[in-house]
Design a protein that fits this description.
Elements: H1 2-30, H2 32-39, H3 43-52, H4 57-73, H5 75-94, H6 99-126, H7 133-158, H8 171-182, H9 188-192, H10 194-214, H11 221-231, H12 239-244, H13 250-283, H14 289-313, H15 319-340, H16 345-360, H17 363-373, H18 380-406, H19 413-433, H20 443-451
Helix pairs in contact: 1-6, 1-7, 1-10, 1-13, 3-6, 3-18, 4-5, 4-6, 4-18, 5-6, 5-10, 6-7, 6-17, 6-18, 7-10, 7-14, 7-17, 13-14, 13-17, 13-18, 13-19, 14-16, 15-16, 15-19
């Protein structure tokens, strides 16, 4: 029981990384239209922000470095320093007064998010009991839902009056604080975007708390054992040689193709929705900034509830059919978009419901679970870093292309929906057909079954 409490405690501490990952994405998304008006940005600028953010390329760059560092120096090394980089990136966004400065903030924040992801999923898996790995991954994914919920609620309360709607309940405080900071010179778009600056300030506070908690974590016992085993080998394999075996071992190659394939096709859609959903609701759906954030916040309540259910059952049910159920909700959501659009509130609500269910029984949850199970400890984080680099790097390119398909006012939304639907169908097929048999097995047993002595 004490070990279970310890793993749960460490899971909660590490899960703050997921809170900050999703929080950074949604904080940018909730204020996207405000930054566009304040800095006079185009859809192309927005696509570039998405491409280098925690949603895509920034995280991709950070992940490949973070995976290597976590395997070379330990999981704890990441938690000792990475949150400091995150706070720097968010602070740059908070004080941004030009597009290059905003872009730099998004990039630094994204790199920090990417550095933390392989270490966090690996650490949670290595510190979980056999029957609770899926549960603990599910708990970490709940943090990925709680972050956006809090950020969107805060964005809704602080929202300025746009689209003919009144401002949020706390926008009066935004005006007072903006006047205090600027000496009463803020007005118009400069005042409106101040609400987004406050939202990012909340992430700095959470990141500081996360840094205090995570730097106190014990090192992963499994990583320590793997390093000790390597140290006593007659011909110790160098770090880069071990890293290189990811590309020479056939089991590794097949595993990476499977995981990256199912996760990439899902993430191409979800990266766009994570960053652009409120913006899409405002343009294609015709909602105000406040209403768009409120609807998205309601969706995250549903995501958290669905993720909670996932965490309770994933270690006890057939994972193949649970995976298929979750992705099928996403397929239905995009069928709705392709054939009916989201031009009315009933359609928006139905789409939000289906999207929330798929995001709760998420491909990302299965990816985090399986990616941390299917590789040996000595390059477990590095393998995740490489795949995360590929997935979010390609998502960055798709994010740039998406804004040109979508158009300035959502005129290309149906074509974009057809493409999204195709991506989801591919993810459904890959994950359902090649679901691995790992439930109820220890990480050591999974490694022996898959690799024997060839690791």
């Amino acid at each position: 029981m004490s070990n279970e409490k310890s793993s749960l405690k460490s899971t909660i501490a590490v899960s703050l990384t997921n809170y900050l990952d999703a929080g950074a994405i949604v904080a940018g998304a909730s204020g996207l239209t405000l930054w566009k008006e304040y800095l006079g940005l185009t859809e192309g600028h927005l696509g570039l922000l998405n491409a280098i953010s925690a949603n895509c390329l920034g995280a991709a760059i950070g992940a490949i470095a973070g995976g290597f560092l976590a395997d070379r120096y330990g999981r704890k090394a990441i938690y000792t320093y990475n949150m400091l980089i995150y706070m720097l990136g968010v602070a740059l966004i908070m004080i941004a007064s030009s597009f290059p400065m905003l872009l730099a903030g998004f990039l630094v924040t994204g790199i920090s998010v990417g550095v933390g992801v392989p270490a966090s999923w690996t650490y949670i898996s290595e510190n979980s009991e056999v029957g609770n790995r899926g549960r603990n991954i599910g708990i970490s994914q709940m943090a990925w839902g709680i972050g956006p919920l809090i950020i969107l609620l805060l964005g809704t309360l602080l929202a300025p009056p746009t689209g003919g709607a009144s401002g949020g309940l706390l926008f009066g405080w935004v005006e007072r604080l903006g006047a205090l900071v600027s000496g009463g010179t803020l007005s118009g778009a400069a005042l409106n975007v101040f609400s987004s600056r406050i939202v990012f300030a909340s992430l700095v506070i959470v990141a500081f708390i996360a840094w205090l908690l995570q730097r106190r974590l014990d090192e992963s016992a499994e990583w320590q054992a793997a390093r000790a085993e390597q140290a006593v080998q007659p011909r110790r394999e160098g770090t880069f040689a071990s890293f290189g075996r990811l590309f020479t071992n056939k089991v590794n190659i097949r595993t990476m193709l499977f995981l990256a394939g199912m996760y990439l096709t899902w993430n191409l859609v979800c990266s766009v929705m994570g960053f652009f959903q409120p913006h899409i609701y405002e343009t294609a759906g015709g909602l105000s900034n406040e209403s768009a954030n409120l609807l998205a916040a309601g969706q995250w309540v549903l995501i958290i509830a669905a993720t909670f259910v996932f965490s309770l059952i994933v270690d006890r049910v057939n994972q193949r059919w649970l995976y298929a159920l979750g992705v099928s909700f996403g397929v239905l959501a995009w069928v709705l978009v392709v054939f009916y659009g989201i031009g009315s509130m009933p359609l928006l609500l139905l789409f939000t419901l289906l999207w929330g269910l798929q995001a709760g029984i998420s491909v990302q949850s299965f990816y985090a679970l399986w990616a941390s199970e299917l590789f040996p400890a000595k390059y477990r984080a590095a393998a995740q870093g490489i795949m995360f680099f590929v997935v979010r790097g390609l998502s960055a390119l798709w994010g740039i292309l998406f804004v040109y398909i979508y158009g300035e006012y959502g005129e290309g939304f149906k074509l974009a929906g057809i493409i999204m639907l195709c991506f989801f169908v591919v993810s459904l097929l890959i994950g359902t057909i090649w679901t691995p048999d790992t439930r109820g097995k220890s990480l050591e047993q999974i490694t022996r079954e898959r690799y024997g002595d060839d690791i």
